[in-house]
Amino acid sequence: MTTIVVARKNGYAAIAADTLTTFGNTRLTPQNDASSDKILCYDGSYIGLCGSAAHHLVIESSMRRIPDLRLRGKAEIFESFRRLHPVLKDEHFLNPKEDDDDPYESSQITALIANPSGIFAVFSMREVFEYNRFWAIGSGSDYALGAMQQAYSRYDNPADIARAGIEAGCEFDKSSSLPMTLYTVRLAEESFTQWRLFQSSLEQLERV
Rounded CA gap, 137 and 144, in Å? Predict the structure, then answer.
């Protein structure tokens, strides 16, 4: 698996990932892997993918072939992954089945996204979540979330918060390892204004 994190603060967002790939008991480190970056860039968005090693090439290929995919905001991300799903099935032979009682077919993808509109996660049934502070996915996510919870109030730069999450995941999760890749993006003014309102509401609650 992996550790991938996103964080946002003070008008910027950051996304980071470890660089280890595993195949059962075999470890493919970045010293031997010519393409160890688990984050891909598409139209100003950074997308971190966890799960099958095939996901990166499949998503990159699909996004090049489908016109007008947009990832700026929760609704656009959902619509884009809805459009991706039949392509994944019909052209890349995705197995959409997970549990028998699942309400929808699975896209078998878990991803984090950072772009000027904010930080988001996409899960296997195309559920999209938007986050105000930070989040993590992958086998090292529990360690990363704990580290970022402690780091969030200590650091003003979201890159430092993301770095703390990846370092914790790589320290304790057997399927994650340094070095990390890390990208930052400046948030659009509208998204930054929403974050400031959120911070103000938190501060008001803390004073009560």
Answer: 9
